[in-house]
Amino acid sequence: MSNNDSSPGRRWDDPPDAEPPSSLSESEPPPMVFLQAVSIPPTSSSEITHLTFSPGGTHVSGAVPKTKTMDTLTDLGPYTLATWSAATGRRVHNPPGGGQNISSSVSHSGGVTLNEGGFAFHPDPTEVVVACPFLRPRPISTYDYRAPLMPRLEAYDLGPRAQRVLKWVPCPMRAPLAWGGASDGTTWLAGVSVRDSSRVVIARLTMVGSSERRNKDSATVQVAPVMARHDDEVTQLAFVRGPADWMAAGMTAVVSAARDGYVRVTCADTGTTLKRIEVVRVGPRAPAPRMMQVSPDGNLVVTVWGREVVLCYLDSGRVDRYHLDTVRARDGWPLCVSPDCRYLACFTEHGFDVSDVATGKLRGEFSWDRPPITSGAFNHDGTQLAISNYKGGLDIFQLITS
Asked: Which CATH superfamily is domain 34-400 in?
């Protein structure tokens, strides 16, 4: 070393002047740990699909085949609703109802009915009310089972009153279904038209009274002459309410994604198109949107098309995307996106894992030797994850992030 160098000489075995930087940068989020909070043994031998948390996170519901027709399901159903307490795992019995279900033969069984697993919760977090569209056969005669199908809509209060609040309303919509709220008690319900799968039908619902004072069959429905239209089948629906950076206060809009490769935002009051974003190029092998989630502030729409995750920023019009195969070290199939648009859960051959939506970086994984996973759902703030399996079991995990 030069004698003019003011720094003292150092040997190779001298201790460092400072601690070396951590291999985990300060911006790197801590690993996620899954704490099993509730484990519900199978209540039947059939799988649970379409898992959904209630808006307040108090309950989790899924679609299950009706017991008497479990082995004779068609594409339409019949299905019924299974609901559990998210805190205790206690099964909530379905309120009494009515209606006919359609399977390989006409089934005159009561209770909650839904076709294709479609249902939607009332947006009020203090409510546990669910809307269920279904197809009801209209018998031509007592012994004729080739009856035409009539679209009907029912709503059930799953709370302490446990009763139906909307009975057999003619409403030409099917799943997917979305329920959006308003401060005056009037809400919007959106579903896919039973006559044209490229159209979205929007209906107004008024729930009369509070959940404590509501009378049986007290809700009213008016199908508004408002329809959002795509060029192909609509597979995902959600509501967003202003104010947002791009939407006025008090405005309610329907966000839809379809096989035509577009995400469309439509004003629920007027049917005016507010946003139209091309997400994927339509081709012979173009995937359909498998899931969609809108952030609470209404500025971000997360969609999953096959194995591609697409983030649409409605305020700026920017579209970001990545392919799961480029960010994952091993196979994983998308399961659900958290309502706050932070996390993406995927099921694997050995269990499930959770990654950040924005970057695709793995946050944590959980391995088990139980039956294959069929459905999953995050609660409203992304602190719980419900997982159902092929044999009808259900597990709820707490997500520990620090």
From this structure: YVTN repeat-like/Quinoprotein amine dehydrogenase (2.130.10.10)
